Amino acid sequence: MKKLTVLKTFMAVLVSAVSLSLMSCMDDGPEIIPVKLEDVNGNYKAKLIVTQGNNKIEKVADFKAKKDTITFLDFPVKEIVKSVVKDPAKTESALAAIGKVKYNLNYTSSINANHNVVELIFAPKTLEIQIPEDGAIKKTVVTFITKEKGFYVGQNRAMQFGLEAEKITVDGVLLTPYEMIKYDFPYCVKY
Known about the structure:
By secondary structure, the protein is α+β, with helices and mostly antiparallel strands. It has one domain (about 35-190).
């Protein structure tokens, strides 16, 4: 009888010790640091998906984010130029003549504490490009829109957003026919 009581007491102590040790493990998850507006600032390497109609191209793009602006030092304009200059050979020579195109994308930011992210609301400016073709310069103005908010996720230091070239005017005339160009940045990592 005494052995049975000792065994029951030993088992109760063992179960209690195991339960307490497992409860202490519940708090051992990763510490979630609250995101701040300044966390968005920095240099990014991004996966870029450019879609126009049925054509889809994936590439890597670099940009810099600061207080209220995302700056592309080399914005991808190939699809824009292809929309204006229909001849593929002339498109390539026009792209070479244009070189790198700088574009600033303005935004306002706010913290969404429930999801621990910074929400980005964009106010895209137009982009003006001088496209050479057959000895003439075509003044091309691209109007961008954003349909959704962008996000910066503090936990993995990544951003995501999208942008669309809604319409293009060439020398003041609306380009028709024109298929909208979508620029999706589904994963942008700060480095």
